[in-house]
């Protein structure tokens, strides 16, 4: 099947989706019956996938039967077509064509980080609910704009911080919130590396891949498979134009758990500083493992302080959580587990709890059910923005190399305009952030 390339010129010609009205879903006659495990077709939520690579395919595999996949969009059109085939779904290279479909009620997007905000805001304007992979954004400014769009267009938004839907993580955070280890004074996070630079030689662009559109708001570079692949040698997740490195990769999981356990989902730290050698990222000129870059870009160490005096240190904590240290002991939270020291601090009964966190045992199902009820999911837009902001603050602290004061209400650095320049990044036309 021939492919079509979306040039910058045609991108400009296509009308931006800017309607504030909610589009109606496609209804199938009631005689199309479901089964005990599969709802009738007209009760299922039509899902469009945007940017469906490695992680997107995993999400499709986990999609509950309440959702049905009706369309796929990817800048790699052959990949979109291959992914769409088993679902008998439509395939597009330009995601805006997918957003025009009336049978798409909601989207799952797992694009690289540098594309996510544009897609999410356009989806809000098109009246679609959104499941967006973590990290939610490439910059702090993008996060606030997504929050504004979700709330303006009354969308249901779930960030892919799926540890909020794991029972052990929820209980571990509830133990901290309910004072089992006493007053928390220190939190040990993992020492997540920041991104570094790349200058790879060019390779032939695979047929059907619109590489210019993949580059999107970033300055175009020659195609290379080890940029295009998420975690390769090393992959776009490690490179600064497209991502915040593992600071926003794994950090979006671990720092999210810190926010949840400390009860700071609507705020953040007030001081950030670093200790150790000045940040000096390498430039990869040919493919190699991530080891060298991650070692160099894990320095200097980063520290946060919250208004209540709790200090977060990036050191030897677990990647999917943190070590919470209080007056009576400590609790270590990681993906799908927690450990209390002494052990009895984590044991039942839990009838003394006064703080109960939202219950979700399946992240995608929680989102789909909230689409039906129009309630907030467990990792809604403000949660995703605030947790991702911590990741960005860690990177900015390394980039400027001096102590910073952060105002979590105004979301600006106090008295430091150089640091404030990192709140957003330049974008090339026509891939600009939509007006909200």
From TrEMBL:
Top-rank taxon, per record: Bacteria
GO function term, MF aspect, one: inositol 2-dehydrogenase (NAD+) activity
Residue ranges the record marks as coiled coil: none
Keyword Oxidoreductase: yes
EC number(s) recorded for this UniProt protein: 1.1.1.18
Region listing for Disordered, in residue ranges: 272-291
Segments forming domain Gfo/Idh/MocA-like oxidoreductase bacterial type C-terminal: 199-431
Keywords: Oxidoreductase
Domain Gfo/Idh/MocA-like oxidoreductase N-terminal, first and last residues per copy: 45-160
Name of the featured protein: Myo-inositol 2-dehydrogenase
């Amino acid at each position: 099947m021939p492919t079509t390339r979306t040039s910058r010129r045609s991108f400009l010609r296509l009308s931006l989706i800017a309607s504030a009205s909610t589009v109606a879903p496609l209804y199938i006659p009631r005689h199309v019956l479901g089964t005990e495990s599969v709802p009738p077709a007209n009760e299922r939520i039509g899902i469009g996938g945007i940017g469906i690579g490695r992680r997107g395919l995993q999400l499709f595999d986990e999609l509950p039967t309440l959702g049905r996949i009706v369309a796929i969009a990817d800048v790699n059109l052959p990949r979109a077509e291959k992914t769409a085939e088993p679902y008998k779904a439509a395939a597009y290279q330009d995601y805006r064509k997918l957003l025009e479909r009336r049978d798409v009620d909601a989207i799952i997007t797992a694009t690289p980080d540098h594309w996510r905000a544009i897609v999410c805001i356009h989806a809000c304007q098109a009246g679609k609910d959104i499941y967006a992979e973590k990290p939610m954004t490439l910059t702090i400014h993008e996060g606030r704009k997504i929050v504004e769009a979700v709330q303006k267009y009354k969308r249901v938004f779930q960030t892919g911080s799926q540890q909020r839907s794991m029972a052990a993580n929820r209980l571990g955070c509830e133990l901290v919130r309910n004072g089992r280890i006493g007053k928390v004074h220190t939190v040990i996070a993992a020492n997540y590396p920041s991104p570094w630079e790349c200058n790879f030689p060019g390779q032939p662009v695979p047929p059907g891949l619109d590489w210019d559109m993949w580059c999107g708001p970033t300055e175009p570079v020659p195609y290379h498979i080890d940029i295009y692949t998420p975690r390769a040698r090393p992959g776009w997740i490690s490179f600064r134009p497209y991502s915040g490195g593992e600071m926003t990769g794994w950090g979006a999981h671990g720092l999210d758990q810190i926010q949840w356990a400390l009860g700071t989902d609507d705020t953040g730290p007030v001081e950030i500083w670093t200790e150790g050698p000045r940040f000096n990222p390498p430039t990869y000129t040919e493919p190699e493992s991530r080891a060298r870059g991650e070692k160099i870009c894990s320095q200097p160490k980063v520290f946060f302080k919250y208004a209540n005096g709790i200090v977060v240190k990036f050191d030897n904590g677990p990647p999917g959580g943190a070590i919470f240290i209080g007056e009576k002991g400590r609790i270590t939270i990681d993906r799908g587990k927690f450990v209390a020291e002494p052990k009895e601090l984590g044991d039942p009964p839990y009838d003394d709890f006064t703080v109960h966190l939202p219950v979700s045992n399946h992240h995608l199902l929680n989102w789909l059910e909230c689409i039906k009820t129009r309630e907030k999911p467990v990792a809604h837009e403000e949660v995703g923005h605030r947790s991702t902001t911590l990741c960005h603050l860690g990177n900015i602290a390394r980039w400027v190399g001096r102590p910073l004061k952060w105002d979590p209400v105004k979301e600006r650095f106090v008295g430091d305009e150089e640091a404030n320049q990192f709140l957003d990044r330049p974008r090339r036309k026509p891939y600009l952030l939509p007006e909200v």
